[in-house]
Design a protein that fits this description.
heterodimer; A: 242 residues; mainly alpha; two-stranded antiparallel sheet; B: 253 residues; five-stranded antiparallel beta sheet; 6 helices; 10 strands; 22% strand
Chain lengths: 242, 253
């Protein structure tokens, strides 16, 4: 694959394509606004959690009742959960409004269909295995490869956007006594408010895991190039090539 | 060409900014008119507090009720946060069974006055089994019995300009509710929990119970209720002692 780049004709075509815009302005702006709000949610989520680092199942739970998981952390009372909640909701508002804008524009511009929905041909075990094996062997993707999202990228981005975030919002709503008074189903379908809190915690951890894997993959593919592309919208790869 | 484009861009950006700013100003006036701005709306966190409070005020209604549970759901363990007031007047009154305790009601009411615990217990009561979630994350279910706040407010004759009900406790802390939650049928002045007099740690002799908000809004150890049209002159003017310590005024989350 890399050898073919030495063919003059192909190299010309490739460099032309590398020059074109990779990410639309809306994708870039929503990406970085979401990044900032995600970090706000992460820090504040931890601040809220350490007020009571214990997880329960069902409607109720507290010191002296059975628990699902107890973290060996001190119970940090008075303070962190206060500003934590304020920051959590401020960030959540930014994150949700940005997310709605991203999804609506993604439907309208067909970004979701073109760039994120995996192609049928890629949804075979063989194809998935090849992509997974490339990732597991930490094979650096070629520039050609990285012009498009591969099938694993597509599936993980779709999972974060359409499974993890909606679940976090739902379980978050299920912890709000005011919202539960209008939509009791948010909590009764889950089986209880403490269950909602526990699910919220675990799904948040999946998103954190995604965040670190995402950064690791960006580093592997070339941190400066990829982050540059997400900021300017263009490839800077051409200059780096011999 | 580029000068033209940039001029056009400048004009549209300017117009958009002006429209945005005036739109925000109009929105703020309407929001304030309809009671959608919380007392702790200042600062960067105030943006989030205001969005959450305004949205929930628009979505919830007088008829949206906190879930109520059956007797078998009552938790055997009911944790608390914070210890009862340790100072002499409270301890003395507790020892006397709150015989000389009085609840003072004043402010924007037609008939200010005082009520003993016996007076309150003679008023119509409501019992409800509801979920109490602490802002820290733990929770329990219990039955609370008391005078519905709406009944009490009608009894003392709340004046039409009332905007907040402020609750003062033995420990000099205070908190407040807007009239929306004050008139809600599930907001109680509770003197009993699980069929017993309110235990010391749960706020004896009287606490408010607001099941559509987090536990910290259900103020304990009440001594005085004031009806007011502004909370600006009470404490730091943010509606309760909580915002001073980083906790938001509104706890509907």
């Amino acid at each position: 694959m890399a050898d073919s780049m030495y063919l003059p004709g192909l190299a010309m075509r490739a460099s032309h394509r590398l020059d074109s815009a990779r990410f639309s302005a809306l994708v870039r702006i929503t990406h970085w606004v979401t990044t900032v709000s995600f970090l706000g949610l992460l820090v504040s989520g931890f601040a809220i959690f350490i007020a009571h680092p214990r997880l329960y199942w069902g409607e109720t739970g507290g010191l002296g009742t059975p628990y699902v998981l107890a973290f060996p952390l001190p119970f940090m009372k008075g303070g962190p959960s206060g500003w934590g909640r304020s920051l959590h909701f401020l960030s959540a508002w930014v994150c949700i409004l940005t997310g709605v804008l991203y999804v609506l524009s993604g439907i309208f511009t067909r970004h979701l269909r073109t760039n994120l929905l995996p192609e049928k041909a890629d949804l075979t075990w063989k194809s998935l295995w090849r992509a997974a094996s490339n990732h597991l062997h930490l094979r650096r993707p070629t520039e050609e490869d990285s012009l498009n999202y591969n099938v694993l990228q597509r599936l993980s981005y779709l999972t974060v956007i359409f499974v993890f975030f909606p679940l976090l919002i739902w379980t978050g709503f299920a912890m709000s006594p005011a919202i539960v008074s209008i939509l009791p189903g948010t909590v009764t379908l889950l089986g209880g408010q403490e269950t909602a809190r526990t699910i919220h915690f675990f799904v948040a951890n999946f998103v954190i895991l995604f965040f670190f894997v995402h950064i690791a993959m960006v580093c592997l593919a070339g941190f400066t190039t990829r982050v540059g592309a997400m900021i300017t919208g263009h490839r800077t790869a051409k200059e780096e090539r011999p | 060409m580029s000068a033209k484009l940039s001029r056009r861009k400048l004009i549209t950006t300017g117009l958009a900014a002006a429209a945005g700013a005036s739109g925000l100003a109009v929105a703020a006036r309407i929001a304030s008119r309809y009671g959608l701005i919380p007392p702790d709306h200042r600062g960067i966190y105030g943006v989030g507090e205001t969005l959450t409070y305004a949205t929930q005020r628009l979505l919830t209604s007088h008829y949206s009720l906190a879930r109520e549970f059956s007797r078998s759901d009552i938790s055997s363990v009911a944790p608390v946060n914070g210890e009862p007031p340790e100072y002499e007047p409270y301890l003395r009154q507790f020892a006397e069974g709150f015989a000389s305790w009085r609840l003072t009601i004043d402010g924007l009411v037609a008939r200010p006055g005082t009520f003993s615990l016996e007076d309150l217990k003679r008023l119509p009561s409501r019992s409800q089994i509801t979920h109490l979630a602490c802002e820290e994350g733990w929770s329990f279910i219990a039955q609370w019995t008391g005078v519905p706040l709406f009944y009490f407010l009608n009894l003392v004759g709340v004046l039409p300009q009332a905007k907040y009900v402020v609750f003062f406790a033995f420990d000099k802390k205070f908190d407040s509710l807007d009239m929306f939650d004050a008139w809600h049928p599930q907001t109680l002045l509770a003197y009993s929990m699980n069929g017993q007099d309110l235990p010391k740690r749960h706020g004896a002799p009287l606490r408010v119970r607001v099941p559509r908000q987090l536990g910290f809004k259900s103020k304990k150890y009440l001594t005085r209720i004031t009806i007011t049209d502004t909370v600006k002159n009470i404490g730091s003017g943010q509606g309760s002692s909580s915002p001073d310590k980083g906790y938001s005024w509104y706890g509907g989350i």
